[in-house]
Amino acid sequence: MSESFEHDYRRLASEDIQLKESTNLSMDALKRAFADNLYHVQGKAEEAGERIGMLLI
pTM for the complete prediction? Predict the structure, then answer.
């Protein structure tokens, strides 16, 4: 392999690893945000259910 090719290969491999790490961090953040929103919506639904239950009593 020529040095230039090897250098380019190593640089691209490094960039690929950085991109994968960045993507994993982004996916983790997205999963946490989704879970937080789901928890919030669930709480609001429970509140609404309690209010409806009180109206029916």
Answer: 0.54
